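Repro case for the chain-ordering regression, as requested:
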Amino acid sequence: EDFLATVAEKSNGAALRGDYEHMDAHYVVQQNWDNYTEQEHELWRKLYQRQSALLPGRACDEFIEALAKMDISAGIPVFEKTSKELFAATGWTIVAVPGLIPELTFFDHLANRRFPVTVWLRKPEEFNYIVEPDVFHDFFGHVPLLFNPVFADYMQRYGQGGLKAMRLGGLDELARLYWYTVEFGLINTPAGVRIYGAGILSSGGEVEYCLTRGTKSRHIRLDIERCLRTLYKIDSYQETYFVIDSYQQLFDGTAPDFTPIYQKLKSMDVLTANTLLADEIELLPAL
Ligand code: PHE
Ligand code: FE
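-- result from build under test --
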């Protein structure tokens, strides 16, 4: 496989986690729920408990409400069950994948309203931190917001945009938007700023960190072009969080043709993760 060879090369020969032997052409596998051990279900319950206790007053209502309805606190969920509920709500389904998948395959799933969820669970020693996304990050972090119709439409549009960005040489730029919205996004609500990003919501430490004024992070209003230029941190908490006012803002903001944006950005410098531009306002209030 090309993809697996490339990954192995990039990571100095370290193989990807996950079983890539039994997949179809779209990298889809069986979840094989019966193969999870009781220890793994117990680890899921602990992850769920720790994480869900952090959510009130911090996660957005859409996430908290969908998560409660999904009823996945008892153990690693059966994908098929939630997938049916999700399909009834927004026309999305969940597909099981071995782990990280190629960009083209990932975008193709999203463009067809399929969300790929990794089947394996982290080890107990990875309770607080995991390098590659596992079933807890993918399922707990990402699936609840897919019950929201507008966000669900944004995700599909993102997949279509990804396929297009591959042709236009805009992948690095577009990936930043995914990172700063789908993974690490914050949303303004009447009750205050809340989290909707899956990378935060599945993290033991970043849920509190991202809403707390520190010396190393800031909130700024999402401007899509600005976001596309901004590098991000993969090995620490974020230094910048972009705040949206609504999911509609994401959907509408990504409706235009990005071709001229990718072109324009080619001649502009990227911005480091801690940049604050002259006309930007820090939204996170000082202590
Ligand atoms: N509308 C963008 C384009 O034409 C694609 C896109 C969709 C980008 C969704 C981001 C999110 O290229
Ligand atoms: Fe993710």
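Ordering looks correct now. Residues 17-266 form a domain with the Phenylalanine Hydroxylase fold (CATH 1.10.800.10).
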